[in-house]
Structures are given as structure tokens and as C-alpha cells.
Amino acid sequence: MARRLGILGGSFDPIHLGHLRSAEEVREALGLERVYFVPAHQPPHKPQRRLADGHSRLAMVELAIADNPAFRACAVEIERGGTSYSVDTVRSFAEHERAASLFFIVGMDTYLEMQTWKDATRIFELASVVVTSRPPHRARPSIEHLPVAAREAFCYDPATLSYRHRIGTSLSFLPITGIDISATEVRERVRRDRTIRYLVPSAVEGFIVERQLYRDGEPNV
């Protein structure tokens, strides 16, 4: 049986409990052997915002997932540098894990923007895509906003409430526990000198305090 691997990308600026719970519920629901957390070097949809440096964000991911043997941090986008495009990352996984079944995990808010992504149609060919609910967005099955080429490649399967791609991958929608936390909220609380306890793992909180990240509204790099 092929290994089943999840890929969860994002700024992770910083990683918080919502990210972790989402990954765990997808892992459990789909029987994934491993979920890779992939911090972006520079997300294409956030060109104007200066992130905390990539190595700090990667370190926070590593601290956050240290006690879960099914979770791994992946530095492929940080090491590649430049603008981070998901299609390049998924292609890299496909090349290095040729025998594995890949599952690219996105929140509903992100999924609704996928038609603007570089080579979005190719992502659906390289991996199955799993769309999770994220407050206030529900995981509602729909492909109406996707590029025409992507829509034409899918066939809806009412038995599984998912879409099957003609090459064998799938597009599925997974309702998960709604934990309404955002990295923006975490950064703002730090800036205002308010506690972020129970919003992020304690090790991440300690790292942010030690490195004095987000104190001035912009990350210290």
C-alpha cells in the first residue's frame, strides 16, 4: 500500500493551535502516515508584508510539532528562496516520493483563492487536495470558482461528497473542529503586550518572548 503523506503550507507567522488541530484531524480522517508543515519563504499573496525570518518561523514549527511523531517540518521553500509557489513544492514532493499518495491540505479561505495561484490546475494533478473548514468558512463542496481546465477534469462523486480527477487524484472537503485563531491575532496581541497563552504551544510562546518577535508590529529579523 502506498504511503499517504500530507502537505500543509503557510506563512506560520507564527504557527498556532488552529494549524496543529487542523493537521491532526486531517491526519486521522485520511489515515496519513505523516504530515509535513512547509513554511513559505515569501508567500505570493503577501508581497507587502514583511514576515519573521524563515529560520525563526521554521524553528517555531519544529518546536510546535516536537511531540507528534507523525508531524515533520520541511524547509524546502525557505531553502529555495524567492517567492514560494505551492505548485513547485507539491512537484518537489511528487518527485521525491514517487510511490506515495500525496494530500495537499488547505483551508476553505485559501481554497477560494486557488484560481489566482500559479499553475493551480497542475496541483490537482500532482496531489489530492483536502479542503478543511475554517471559521467563518464552511467546507462546502464546490468547484465553480476554479479555472475551467480544472473544473472539466473533475467528476463529482455523491457517495463520498468529493470530486474525482480524471487521472485518479481527488478533491475532498473535510469539516473540522472550528478553532478561531489567526496568526494576525497572535501578532497583534504580542504587539499590545497581551498574553498568547493557549493560542500557541508554550514552546512557541517562549521562543517569541526570547526573540522579541512581533513587538513593534513588524517582525524582528
What does this structure look like?
By secondary structure, this protein is α/β, with parallel strands linked by helices. The protein has a single domain, classed as HUPs (Rossmann fold, 3-Layer(aba) Sandwich). It is 35% helix and 19% strand. The chain is built from 9 helices and 8 strands. The chain has helices spanning 17-30, 54-65, 76-80, 86-96, 108-111, 120-126, 148-153, 183-191, 202-211, and strands spanning 4-10, 34-39, 71-73, 101-107, 128-132, 154-157, 162-165, 170-174. It has an 8-stranded mixed β-sheet, with helices on both faces. Strand 2, helix 2 and strand 3 (71-73) form a beta-alpha-beta unit. The mean pLDDT is 93.
Give the full name of the CATH homologous superfamily.
Answer: HUPs
Task: Tell me about the largest β-sheet.
Answer: 8 strands, mixed
Return Rg in Å: 17 Å
Strand content: 15-25%
Could you tell me how far the N terminus lies from the C terminus, measured between alpha carbons in angstroms? 44 Å
The percent of residues in helical segments reads: 25-40%
What count of structural domains? 1
Overall pLDDT metric? 93
State the CATH architecture: 3-Layer(aba) Sandwich
* CATH fold-level topology: Rossmann fold
CATH level-1 class: Alpha Beta
SS summary, helix count: 9
Strand order of the largest sheet: 3-2-1-4-5-8-7-6
State the total count of DSSP E strands. Answer: 8
What is the element string, with H for helices and E for strands?
EHEHEHHEHHEHEEEHH
Which parts are unreliable, with pLDDT below 50 for 5 consecutive residues or more? none
Structural class: alpha/beta
Shape: globular
